[in-house]
Amino acid sequence: MRDPLDILKETFGFTAFRGVQSDVVDRVMRGEDTLTVMPTGAGKSLCYQLPAVALDGTTIVISPLIALMEDQVRSASANGIAAAALTSATQDRQAVERALLSGELDLLYVAPERATTERFGRMLEDARISLVAIDEAHCVSEWGHDFRPDYRLLRPLIDHLQAPRLALTATADRRTRADILQQLGIPVDGLIVAGFDRPNIRYHVVPRSGLPTQLKRLAKAQPGPGIVYCPSRAKTEKIAADLREMGRPAAAYHAGMEPHLRSGNQEAFVRSEDMVLAATIAFGMGIDKPDVRFVAHAATPKSIEAYYQETGRAGRDGEPAEAWLFWGAEDFARARQRIETEVEPERRAGERERLNALAAFVEAATCRRAILLRYFGEDPPETCGNCDNCLDPPKTIDVTVVAQKVLSAAFRTEMRFGVGYLKQVLAGDDNEKVRMNGHHQVSVFGIMDAEELALVQPVARALIARDALRADAYGGLSFGPGAKPILKGEQELVIAVPPKRTSRRRKAAED
Ligand code: ADP
Ligand code: ZN
Q: What pTM, to 2 d.p., does this model score?
């Protein structure tokens, strides 16, 4: 058998393995079952492509996305590897099957729904299989963020094949990882995790407050290509227009655009040295632009994993880069509502937990990097020196009493009003609406002084983020499971002292 290092040089043109690649390849070559968790861009494909070349027989790669499979086949073929894919888009399926059966293929990519058919299983019995690689392996876990039932059906197939298995994923918290090991029958000592730290990325997390101004300020301070992830298609167009108005080259990118416009914008961005792309999360997969200098989020991402993945597109060249997250309580309110209404009941607990982890991250007064790395199972130092909280440690303030008053106000006003109204009641604002509702007579009317009133917004934001308050479709706030412990004084609420407030007018101009 050829030396892996020779193959690395001759077939792939690389001088050395990167990070844990050599550990993974060694295990695979010894025939041991393995799960590797490596961040995007760390070089997962090589971990099975190299053994595919080195070992006799064909490596089967289970992969969920046709577009990615085709990319992979193209790049493997360019390296002189015999690779093919069996998908609904495959032109000459019979030729691929013949090549498999005659042992000509090093690599065969197949989607899980095809891999689990009886026909495919029978065909593999007549082929020589050297390795089964399961890409995007988090799809096998209900704890993962992208569960795909077809992945669950793979087990009989891979148990039946007498070949080592290699599961790969970029995103898996501890629980998902344990689940993948179990679901795919990989021993616990078969887990190899790469370092997730991206030391050149500086993390900043700030509450949204006059977003257009916040983004313009960022675009002014930050040269180089940048991506702004937006929560909607309309927002991408609006933000791109805002930035162009201030003289910064900017374009939008979303799935609803004319394909030629969209790819035109993408190409312009990839070539550009100073352009900002305002995009939905549809943008980024498979884009190779190493010099992105900043990634901003105009709204809260879906999870810590999504945040890590999206910010990870900044600074791939290793030069300093920035990540800015502009979050709002309404992002969390919306996400929580989505979980309760759109997610299948058995997956809600996992989704809630992921959202809570994200809320803890955005609200934290401690090192952002440490929180991210701990989430991915690492044991990082307490401080990194390259995030907002390390560079400028926020003062914290115990707002338990303010929180209790806000919660009481929600309760005394029948839990159907938004934070603006609660503030009027707490301030003792004897206006017509308050009077008409009879809320000038409730016990919490006028119980806050100016200092406390200034904290109502940030406290409400914190309460919503931790699910102590829930917003309905009209913005009315009612109790969530986190409310009682705070009201009873069993749980404190400590937040970072909020930055200086922006003016009323600027707030109104938001969106
Ligand atoms: P992932 O699937 O983990 O996101 P890829 O497999 O697409 O990552 O690899 C990311 C990039 O790193 C590719 O351009 C690949 O050619 C490159 N790469 C992978 N391994 C090495 C290595 N050992 N040395 C240099 N470059 C590598
Ligand atoms: Zn830090």
A: 0.76
